[in-house]
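Q: Please design a sequence for this.
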């Protein structure tokens, strides 16, 4: 009897897997175009605080949020890097507001990736998996044997994992489409000002101190090996004395 039950599970006809060109993928007219917009801007400014204030004002108008804000200093410049998100419908407005206060961009990269097909494909496959899950649940209600129930539950568990994975990808895709990521890098050159602060006299004094420290290090090293120097001098004395005796003979 148990063998016949297993045979019954094996011969159950489940709905065939529907690929991306199946009936469930009749969505192009129902789904609006999905575009992921990103921007990466870099420019020089005379006033970091003023530029940051202008970015904040533009961000408030566009209803965006700052994700990361970092600042620092390297050779010849001080800089600030900001990573932010704005609603996609306000992307162009924000870029235009920022561009008004910039004389020229050192780099300006704007991308728009069409992910409509990915969105439709994920939606279609998700519907297929959910239908398959429903079919297995119906079969589970009719199952009577323990082995039968365990096998069906295992299949349902696997299907649910796939459903959750696809739902996660779909949710991520929707978030990328709904909000655009923008990276703004701006800096202020300080090389000339630093050059004025460091005078020729300061450079000369620094060189003298460096030479003095080098000489001190040499003397310290020399003192650390004085026993070897003493032995060398004694040996040289006796060798020279012996050489003179042989020369007289």
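A: Design:
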């Amino acid at each position: 009897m148990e063998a016949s039950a297993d045979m019954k599970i094996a011969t159950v006809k489940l709905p065939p897997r529907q690929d991306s060109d199946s009936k469930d993928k009749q969505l192009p007219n129902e789904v609006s175009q999905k575009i992921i917009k990103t921007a990466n801007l870099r420019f020089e400014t005379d006033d970091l605080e003023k530029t940051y204030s202008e970015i904040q004002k533009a961000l408030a108008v566009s209803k965006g949020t700052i994700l990361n804000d970092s600042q620092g200093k390297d050779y010849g410049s001080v800089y600030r890097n900001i990573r932010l998100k704005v609603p996609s419908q306000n992307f162009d407005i924000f870029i235009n507001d920022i561009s008004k206060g910039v004389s020229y961009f050192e780099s300006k990269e704007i991308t728009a990736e069409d992910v409509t097909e990915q969105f439709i494909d994920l939606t279609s496959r998700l519907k297929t998996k959910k239908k398959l899950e429903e079919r297995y649940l119906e079969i589970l209600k009719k199952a009577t044997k323990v082995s039968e129930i365990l096998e069906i539950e295992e299949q349902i568990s696997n299907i649910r994992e796939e459903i959750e994975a696809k739902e996660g990808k779909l949710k991520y895709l929707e978030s990328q489409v709904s909000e655009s990521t923008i990276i703004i890098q701006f800096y202020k050159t300080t090389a000339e000002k630093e050059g004025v602060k460091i005078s020729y006299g300061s450079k000369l004094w620094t060189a003298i101190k460096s030479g003095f420290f080098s000489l001190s290090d040499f003397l310290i090293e020399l003192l650390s090996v004085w026993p070897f120097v003493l032995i060398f001098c004694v040996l040289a004395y006796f060798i020279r004395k012996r050489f003179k005796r042989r020369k007289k003979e």
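Q: Thanks. Anything notable?
A: Residues 87 and 179 are 4 Å apart (CA to CA). The mean pLDDT is 79.
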